Amino acid sequence: MAIRTPKEYLESLKDGRTIYVQGQKYHDVTGHPLLRLALERCLVDYVMAQEPRYKDLLIERDDNGEPYHFTLKPPTSAADLLRRRDIEQTAARTLGGKASGSKHTGPDGLHALTATSRLMDKEIGTSYSERVELLRKELKRIDAAIALGMTDVKGDRSLRPSKQKQHKDFYVRVVDKSNDGIVVDGALAHISHGTFANYIIVLPCRAMTEEDEDYAVSFAVSPGEKGIKLIHPRGDYFEEGNYFDFPHSARLGYSDCIVVFDNVFIPRERVFLCGEWQFAGPTAYMFANFHRQDADAYKVALLETMVGAALLMAEYNGLEKDNIIQEKLSWLVFYAETAETLGRAAAQNPVTDPVSGYIYPDSIMSNCAKFYYADNYHQALKLIQDITGGIAVTIPSAKDYLNPEIHQILEKYLAGKDGIPTEHRIRAIKLVSDLSGTYEQVATIHAEGSLGAQRLAIHRVADLNKYRAAAKRVAGIQDGTEHPLYSQLIKWPQPLKDIIK
Amino acid sequence: MAIRTPKEYLESLKDGRTIYVQGQKYHDVTGHPLLRLALERCLVDYVMAQEPRYKDLLIERDDNGEPYHFTLKPPTSAADLLRRRDIEQTAARTLGGKASGSKHTGPDGLHALTATSRLMDKEIGTSYSERVELLRKELKRIDAAIALGMTDVKGDRSLRPSKQKQHKDFYVRVVDKSNDGIVVDGALAHISHGTFANYIIVLPCRAMTEEDEDYAVSFAVSPGEKGIKLIHPRGDYFEEGNYFDFPHSARLGYSDCIVVFDNVFIPRERVFLCGEWQFAGPTAYMFANFHRQDADAYKVALLETMVGAALLMAEYNGLEKDNIIQEKLSWLVFYAETAETLGRAAAQNPVTDPVSGYIYPDSIMSNCAKFYYADNYHQALKLIQDITGGIAVTIPSAKDYLNPEIHQILEKYLAGKDGIPTEHRIRAIKLVSDLSGTYEQVATIHAEGSLGAQRLAIHRVADLNKYRAAAKRVAGIQDGTEHPLYSQLIKWPQPLKDIIK
Amino acid sequence: MAIRTPKEYLESLKDGRTIYVQGQKYHDVTGHPLLRLALERCLVDYVMAQEPRYKDLLIERDDNGEPYHFTLKPPTSAADLLRRRDIEQTAARTLGGKASGSKHTGPDGLHALTATSRLMDKEIGTSYSERVELLRKELKRIDAAIALGMTDVKGDRSLRPSKQKQHKDFYVRVVDKSNDGIVVDGALAHISHGTFANYIIVLPCRAMTEEDEDYAVSFAVSPGEKGIKLIHPRGDYFEEGNYFDFPHSARLGYSDCIVVFDNVFIPRERVFLCGEWQFAGPTAYMFANFHRQDADAYKVALLETMVGAALLMAEYNGLEKDNIIQEKLSWLVFYAETAETLGRAAAQNPVTDPVSGYIYPDSIMSNCAKFYYADNYHQALKLIQDITGGIAVTIPSAKDYLNPEIHQILEKYLAGKDGIPTEHRIRAIKLVSDLSGTYEQVATIHAEGSLGAQRLAIHRVADLNKYRAAAKRVAGIQDGTEHPLYSQLIKWPQPLKDIIK
Amino acid sequence: MAIRTPKEYLESLKDGRTIYVQGQKYHDVTGHPLLRLALERCLVDYVMAQEPRYKDLLIERDDNGEPYHFTLKPPTSAADLLRRRDIEQTAARTLGGKASGSKHTGPDGLHALTATSRLMDKEIGTSYSERVELLRKELKRIDAAIALGMTDVKGDRSLRPSKQKQHKDFYVRVVDKSNDGIVVDGALAHISHGTFANYIIVLPCRAMTEEDEDYAVSFAVSPGEKGIKLIHPRGDYFEEGNYFDFPHSARLGYSDCIVVFDNVFIPRERVFLCGEWQFAGPTAYMFANFHRQDADAYKVALLETMVGAALLMAEYNGLEKDNIIQEKLSWLVFYAETAETLGRAAAQNPVTDPVSGYIYPDSIMSNCAKFYYADNYHQALKLIQDITGGIAVTIPSAKDYLNPEIHQILEKYLAGKDGIPTEHRIRAIKLVSDLSGTYEQVATIHAEGSLGAQRLAIHRVADLNKYRAAAKRVAGIQDGTEHPLYSQLIKWPQPLKDIIK
Prior knowledge:
The structure is a homotetramer of 501-residue chains.
Chain A: H1 6-12, E1 18-21, E2 24-26, H2 33-49, H3 55-58, E3 59-61, E4 67-69, H4 78-94, H5 105-124, H6 128-142, E5 146-149, E6 173-177, E7 181-192, E8 199-202, E9 217-221, E10 228-231, E11 256-267, E12 271-274, H7 280-316, H8 323-348, E13 351-352, E14 359-360, H9 363-388, H10 391-394, H11 398-402, H12 404-413, H13 422-435, H14 438-446, H15 451-461, H16 464-475, H17 484-487, H18 496-499
Parallel strand pairs in A: 1-10, 5-8
Antiparallel strand pairs in A: 1-2, 3-4, 6-7, 7-11, 8-9, 9-12, 10-11, 13-14
């Protein structure tokens, strides 16, 4: 058991995995510029773990003194959850507002399995907990990069898994079973960092009915396993290392591949759900409890960057005292601080699962955080673009700026407020332009649960009777229902004569 | 020193104070139905204090064992701030979503003076702290109902106090001084509960310049003092006790009077600021730190009532399964829970004033809470009305419903979903109608600081350099500025060859 | 045939009709202050018709030279539709932003029946057209005040008329038929001006299925007919004639009564639909085509008043040069002008029904108008209240202002910008307060079709294939579909070499 | 005089003009893929002009029978303005939602100069009209591609042109004058199609004061003139001709170059304003009157494409019947139809300039159109992305899709609703992804005037007194002001006894 160096981590990926990107097949995760770009988001965790400054933050020790990455540890307190948040934000700030890849989403799945396996063992007498702890041990041992596979490709969204028409593999399913293990088919989309993981933990993405029992399956597998193909998205960016023109997306790394399972064998000890369809939903929800915390944490680093870009543009354009601009900037600051406060509150007010005893961030609060920032993201973009001006899309390239024939011209004419170097203004403009692209918009809405998923979640977790009780009390509706927050209040209004008696 | 009964409290108001309401002069605070309605919001604190169930929540004991109301105690921990919040919410839930009146805003002013007087004593050698403690002692002694006077009538909003044109009294000011005390002139608007208070604590409403030094004044005074007139708003409501038609506003009690000072003498020991214009701003801001907590707390009880009304209407109309309705309900639940989370987080993460040592709720978080719920309130109303239907304004009156000639007809035709008593549906409709009135809209935007005030506050308290640092890091702007959150991060991106070395 | 005087109109209502308001029964439409208030909205049409200045606008002449109100005439051109709009707006401006009552909604129903009866006669061989023309003749003859009855009380909104559970009368239905006529039962809600009408034209409110055929019924009837009860809403307002405190709602007149039909006999010649369920939907939709034009027209007068109130408040508070305030004012002006432009465009671009030959406003445009102003109304209110300040709900009453003991004090302290009389500022504040009440909010959302109704309408009338064709062209999707706007375009992009050949 | 072929047009650009793109200098407008891409937007006008189907639409004939492009003709009626709109929309639909380049913005400038020169000649006795007509003659003669240069680079946005600090060339200015002509310096940003124009018409971008008189300058010049440099933006797109992955932006053509004037001589007859600073504002505003019409016209073609993409995605995902999705789609349809209606109304209701007699689209309506679609654009994007799903950014590339090793896998797993070819779904996803990029967002907000510019414009052109009059009437404020719409209304309310007398 050990903390691996970046080099050791890279070595561990040389297992001949099958990767497609831009129409070419690769077996080397550094084979294409897009892969290299995406890879960095996993690498950063290993680089940080070597840094003395992050030792206390990132490294935990086992009972026998062996070091391992903190995110593999089952959280037991608000402090643990806040530390998770701190780790995530530090990495995201390092990456200019993107989540790092090898130590977050995957461990969220491990935590979900830990909780759900305890529940299953208790309720239906399985012994999945042991398998989960075996997996944890293995993940610690190899200091694994872990991805999470949950989002089935889904086909017709109005039909359940077993009711799909063209074929039955729109959701990952068990096609064969034996004493040794199971065989699975299917494909998962948007699997962040799957290409660069040592393990992918696969969970069901929704509650299942009995008819869907073949789809109630969970397992862990190496992306290098026979029968697995990793198909990479195109990405928007091509010029490796051009941080001047693409200050954000040149670090971005579209890492969200399609993972195809073609008759993949999973040994028995790596299977954590297999037909127990009643537990598909709970597993998915418990994962969400952890995973939303990631979102709530790293997104703040992105919002800080966006709001900062707007602040700089206002200043560089000489408009920082303009009231209308100030109003927009205030909204942006509220936006970022509200997102931070909500996410932090979820960690600060943990919930203990009554059955498994597992602790996780308050799911109402974390859903509020996710919904809030996603629902308002496009408004933020609009304000930032409004402040910046049309130059965000008509700015010349770095190559123009560096061309000696026109460098002085651009220095002269792209200047803003006196005292601000023109280069700084150009860089801030490039940042706004780059932050406005498709990726972050769509990822903010859909990653870690879409707006619709948040809505379903809040309906499930919120105490709606609290609201009903509040309204009934005022409206004078007496229907026999009670709620602790409202039923113990004193009667009101009371006649004045009673009050002053 | 003692906790007064409601009757004792009412007795204490019989000091001949001069009240105008609906064009008539009264000296009795129960003289007019509107006064009685407003009075209840102060009375409730005294009623609750007599309840055994609230003893632990509301009552604190002095070193000598004397009981006093907890809100007079300087908070020293997050637990104290959360208890303040709990008190405020319990009262507001009792009152159907309105703040109670005698123990919140006034004590906020006392806390502000406690902190600012310490600051002034330290920085300019005054001895205001002693006076503040004397006042606290007196307030405890009489178990006072305390109002806060801050919002000057202002005249031309584009001009500072001393630059006003028609006259110089648009902001409260010192018109005479002597060894014994000061004489003040002016008028304050929107003074909640002033009519029913034993003391009004007056604070400056803004930062002042040297030219405005006559306006840098703070003091405490009884509303019964010679030269004070209390002019009451009209209110929307007239039918005392008709809780069927006006389930919310019949409990509402417009209590926000105009307080006129006509050459009112304030003895020296009740003066807490007098010409020290540099401290006008800090006093106002420190008050806001506490006062916004009230808003963040009690408003949630109103939002619970509103959201509950929408939930009931959806169900009573048979539309609780309709997806579009569900989406709107989800938004409303997010709205209420987000407001609750933000407000609670502010209390949970207190700030210690470095100079006075005073503790108060995090002002970024509490501003986020206030801005969030105020900025989105009209959207909430719209959704609730959308769900309810036009019947919110075309519903017959209680008297129609109770008229035996048409009672059965209304029972038959105003029914909604089978199984829901028609009366329940009517009551829920009445609640929506009543919640949609002018008062709560305007109060939600303007009370405890307008949207504009929130914007100024967030600009003052937020760490804008954090945002700038985030953007500069990504944009590659190096201008010598640093920020602890960003300057300690590892360099990124690093060349792959460096990483794997 | 003649244009009646107001007095003649009032005489015509003395038919012993049964009215309930505030729990009392009346047979006199002027019997209660609320009735008098509501009555004015019908009266105004008769007052205006006596005015020489409106003769050309309001009065049309029959072939035989008899004068009648223009709104009874079937429109035949854009000019006719614009004249309808002009009439509506002039009356609404007269009434401070409210629709007048006797000549708009009712005639919209007449137009719908004119078109649909032609369609039915043609398609299924009925002779309803004759009956409709008989009705028109009668309405002209008596210069009738005409109401429209469409909104059934509905019960459980998730169930069709015939599937309701508690009873079968949640939608108006035929309970008996004979050669002489039909007998109907049921109740209609929100029937504007029903109490003051000479005729109510009843239409189905939705498309019906065969099972609902008893509910596919349309007829005209006098509200004084045996078996009809008119139950009035409570309203917010009580002080008759207090235009100072209630400048808008004292003119408002909640006129939207519940009309109950208890075994009401309708003679054969006044029945226009009876069981032909396929034509229930078309009748309802055709009515909407005309009725939305009313909404689009009169609402602009309300918006003008609201935006004007905000402009005055900004000026009276001395903030008319403040950039943030200006931005809000601009939004409000855009809001009002956009609503006006959309509504006017619908009239300017009329549609001719291919079957009946009837002309009506463009229904896409008129739906856009209605949806736009309703969807944004609460945002407008928010901005207006934000500009005005908390004083909107803490302003004293007229009686206080006129009390000589405090008149000078209020003159002094409620002053705003120098040069503006305090009374003007108070009046503007009162206007904002009064405009913010429940009624206009709910009416703006729900009257003339809810937001949901607009959404259904736009889905029905918009040319969705135009959009699909646009997207397919760009995306390169060739699926054999065509659209005239897109299929005739030249191919693009074309290779440069082809272009320059 | 003649209509040129595309080839002739291309020949006309071979004048050795100096173009920079991606750090390289070119003299050939087809020298770089980015240039070719941008060039197409001008080429299309020449291609269309050769098409018989567009002859009636595009080609006008002079008195002597010579054909010329209609957009050069001074409009004299609503029909002319609607024809302008039709031309613009047809081209934009051809180009997938982008404006064509050679015949719109430039002619808008010509129209502005036509109107303003008449005004100047009349008011200050100049003879600019003759020069303008000479220019028109020349533009017709060569069937010119015409660009418009207005947006100065501006420097510190809080300072006027003459007050800028680093240098005095942030706005284009006259640096020398002689009898023969003038010499100008400066730089313009965002000059659409400047690189591909035969003439750039330069106008001042704002009202000027006397101190800024050197900046009050207007002229026409060829981009090939000595001293002019054209610096191109980078653009997002690199793969020429990849319409599968980039169905929209591969046709997009960032054409908005920076035009640098380095001591450029302008002969006297091409100068249309030179120091008459009072006319700088009117020229800019008159240009905006025409130019906003372009925006209002072509943007609709983009919105059609966007809304269509959302409709297709809903259907292809099997969600077209889902209520929540339907609600979003309805909003999108309202959005596009409202934009269309507003823009069309502006053309349909033309204004005649009282001094010059020139006709132009209603500027209130056209501002409403521009503001409306720009203010709501990000909301539209959000809904479209919400409907589409995360696949918008995780979709593999065309090369992957065409790779035989994984083609069948992608066919299988990227399928949506049964019956929809997977390729169609992928193409629709690619379209959404491509439409969500930075360019259209920023261009929608800023091109043809920013949101702030719209706000200033509506304040200038709207009849604010109409609003004030409406509010004063209701509020009862009598201050001697009058407005024709309100002062002629009958008095209201009138006492009932007066009405029925």
